[in-house]
Amino acid sequence: MLADFVAHMLDNNDAILADIPVKAGSKSIESWGISTGDNVFVWILNKNDLPVSRLVLVFPGLVQTKYTLKAYNTWNGDYSDIGIVEISAGQLHLENIHLDANKDMALWLEVAK
After folding, report:
1. How wide is the angle at C-alpha 2 spanned by C-alphas 80 and 63, nearest 5°?
2. Which residues lie closer than 8 Å to 94 by C-beta, 6 or more apart?
3. Where are the domains of the chain?
4. Are 111 and 36 in contact (CB under 8 A)?
5. How much is the pTM?
6. Which of 13, 54, 100, 106 counts the highest number of beta carbons within 10 A?
7. Measured in Å, how far apart are the chain's first and last C-alpha atoms?
8. pLDDT tens per residue across span 63-80
């Protein structure tokens, strides 16, 4: 199932995968990011013993724009359409996200059309 998510990173054969720094604002939340074309892919790992429902991701240098956001449950392969979000001042505020304790998830941000 993860292969389905990863395949989207390679949809645009001309795009180059680029590492982008992502900070989750907490030592107990790890994050990694890559971009390709108009897409940004982020993995977040909750090392807390409690679930997280609110999260601010910081993308230094990423331009302000609107994205269509999908969350990908790496444990069961389900997508959740979160909707249109905006990165402003390099920050993405996720107010209604559900990240279980000691679990991870992936996020797919595609420039909104």
Report:
1. 60
2. 54, 55, 56, 57, 82, 85
3. 2-111
4. no
5. 0.84
6. 106
7. 26
8. 789 999 999 888 888 888
